[in-house]
Amino acid sequence: MEVKRESWGTRFGFVLAAAGSAVGLGNIWRFPYLTGENGGSAFILIYLVFVFLIGLSVMIAEFALGRNSGLSAVGAVKSYSDRWTFVGVMGVLSAFLIMGFYPVVGGWALAYIFESFAGLYTRTPEAIDQAFGTFITGTARPIIWMLIFLGMNIIIVAKGIKGGIEQAARVLMPTLFILLIFISIRSVTLEGAGAGVDFLFRPDFSEVNGGTFLAALGQAFFSLSLGMGAMITYGSYLSKKETIPQNALIVTGLDVGVALLAGIAMFPALFAFGMEPAQGPGLVFVVIPIVFSQMGGLGIIFGIIFFVSLAVAALTSSISLLEVVASYLIDQKNVKRKTAVYSTGVLMAFMGVLTSLSLGVFDPLPTLNVGFFDLFDILSDKVFLGFGGMFIAVITGWVANKEVLREELTNEGTTDFVLFEAWHFLIKWIIPPAVAIVAVFGILDIEETAVMIFGLAIIAVLAIFSRKLD
Ligand code: PFF
């Protein structure tokens, strides 16, 4: 018996769910520290160009491929040509790898909501810094928080598209926007906030190199949830009535808006209290609590709001990652939703435990010189997402039929997509070589060569055996 495919209840619900996938740790945790490490506004400028020229076009392509085929990542690309099945498989693999570290950080955010209540902001800066180090290198505590965070994902995704993912996004996303706006207003109205605003909006190109471009491109794909089939999957549940380009523009706009808002929430406050912007991944867990500790009694309120926002943003993104893997099992392997979600969840829990432990008590990969945490991060965003995005552009531009795409993007000619030709030109001729060039120069500039070669080798093997995959 043919079971009817699930679908989103409303357009608003779809937009919030897709924006929920896009807006996540990438915006609030990663974007600020990458900006800090890469010299501020010059990085932001390059990032914005990549987002609107490359990211938005790839997002439109992903929605179109998903809705047109009515299938999630692997099934969708396979339906165009089995020569390209590996791109979908790479996507599922990337979702898996990202879920190796994402719930760990999501768990930290949850833990910090409770730390906020427990007097975190009454400590000295040194004690706050030390507390974070002790916490993440610990054994049981970070693992328990990671499991709680992952458990929330499992409950939501097991409930399905409309009743689970869409419902969660409807409640969580508006909450997130309001909370972030609140903190941003506080941050820019602090005395001495101007230096932080300058850092964000006055470009200094002296720190830019090949690595900056790769970081900006990787971040564009990561932040918009592209290159791995998440948006293909979400598009596959979208009603034929909806206009794709418009929805993609809204989702992209919301994603960029939240990243900038997170920057505005953090850097002015950081500069106002004389802290260093280039702090790496610890930025939101060390520097931000220190900033709150300087705010007197109000710090605790802002701290709680901030970490609730971070946890909420992380949750609506990680459910889309879990959905990518679960929908693969549902669509391609005929597994029931609940079974797919529970079994995937168990595997992800294992990875999360290993990742969390690799920050402290055990070093699983001494020869590669990176822990699981960095391994999953580098593999997914510097290797798989960029190449995934490039291949998705190639499939859309060179394999999918242009007229079918035109029909899909104009709702059978009933709506306008005036930029269709420009979009198709970008997807076919500009994006594949542009991404390839950035990837190659970026790779030459990156220190973790062994990890990069390992990632490229996985892609090569998958591509060679593409026709055998399903
Ligand atoms: N876009 C998410 C973020 O910015 O945190 C991360 C992400 C989610 C990446 C889903 C990829 C994905 F498929």
Task: Describe it.
This protein is mostly helical and 470 residues long. The protein has a single domain (11-468), classed as Amino acid/polyamine transporter I (Up-down Bundle), CATH 1.20.1740. The protein is built from 19 helices and no strands. It has helices at 11-22, 25-37, 41-69, 73-80, 85-117, 125-136, 140-158, 161-188, 194-201, 210-223, 230-236, 244-272, 283-293, 298-333, 337-358, 372-399, 402-409, 420-445, 449-464. The longest helix has 36 residues, at 298-333. The chain binds 4-fluoro-L-phenylalanine. 4-fluoro-L-phenylalanine is lined by residues 21-22, 24-27, 95, 98, 222-223, 225, 228, 230, 317, 320-321, 324.
Quick rundown:
The protein has 19 helices and no strands. With 470 residues, it is mainly α. Helix 3 (41-69) crosses helix 11 (230-236), helix 5 packs antiparallel against helix 14 (298-333) and helix 9 crosses helix 12.
Main pleated sheet: none
- Please state the overall shape, judged from the principal axes of the Cα atoms: globular
**At the third CATH level, what is the topology name?**
Amino acid/polyamine transporter I
Mean pLDDT: 91
DSSP strand count: 0
Secondary structure layout:
Layout: H1 11-22, H2 25-37, H3 41-69, H4 73-80, H5 85-117, H6 125-136, H7 140-158, H8 161-188, H9 194-201, H10 210-223, H11 230-236, H12 244-272, H13 283-293, H14 298-333, H15 337-358, H16 372-399, H17 402-409, H18 420-445, H19 449-464
The protein binds 4-fluoro-L-phenylalanine (PFF).
The site of 4-fluoro-L-phenylalanine has 17 residues, from helix 1, helix 2, helix 5, helix 10 and helix 14.
